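Example 3.2
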Amino acid sequence: MSGVRVLVTGATGTTGSHVAAGARSAGAEVRTASRHGSDVAFDWHDGGTWPAALDGCDRAYLVPPAGLDVAPSMVPFIELARRNGFERLVLLSNSVFPMGGPGAGAVHQALAEGGPDDFVVLRPSWFMQNVTGEHYLARMVRDEDRIAVHALLDEKRPAAELVLTGPEALSYRRVAQIVGAARGRPVAFEPVTPAELAERLARTYPLPFAQALAELDALIAAGAEDRVTPDVERVTGRPPRSFEQFAAAAFRSAG
């Protein structure tokens, strides 16, 4: 990977930090970008920070800012990156919102309509890491997305869109059972209404974003995430870990 120069936005976050580390270990030159604590200061809502982040790079990992109305900030950045000769753009979206949908779905559509076949859209289901660290689910029950490294660095683009799941679809109730078994004491499952969930999330996020997350949760409860895909193994050559394996390792190291 000598000569490949990768910009990683959201580089202090869960996925961005792992992507940066993975790209470096593969021999790429990496520039990290975030509002604080990275190689360059970067803010999706401040176009003045974009040129320094883009300068000298030819691939980018794009982590959307918090919120649903992300296209007005992200699409102009993508257009600027393409004008600067970027050869691959990897967008972190989610498995619920398809191309043309809300949030990153609108950015996905702009990538598909706005230029050559230079992009990959990652549409992961919920991360296993949501039950550890500082995610709101982890706080309720109180790390590793390496697929993007392949999407960024593989000489041949793996696919325009990758829907990333583990080996099985899990309910919240089953997740609670697995986490409880892994940490050695039960975790209760408490169903709440979307309004109640939005109220809880609003303690951490702005209310419109909290409401959007609660609506997303309702879609998941209705079956929007009831699927398993082969994309992780197809790209990496390895089957995804089960949640039981992840939880056993995570809570063993935490304990």
